[in-house]
């Protein structure tokens, strides 16, 4: 998994609202991610101040 590439895409998506949906994030990630990779990704998102939301309609 290339965490840097996923984070770059997440930053682009979240730059205006500070959030990214789970659907958007899932689309950026490979299907075979290991649990420790997922944990590292969530840690990196939090460190960047990017919030994860469940649905695009959610505010």
Automatic annotation (TrEMBL):
It comes from the Bacteria. One of its GO terms (molecular function) is sigma factor activity. This is RNA polymerase subunit sigma-70. It comes from Bradyrhizobium septentrionale.
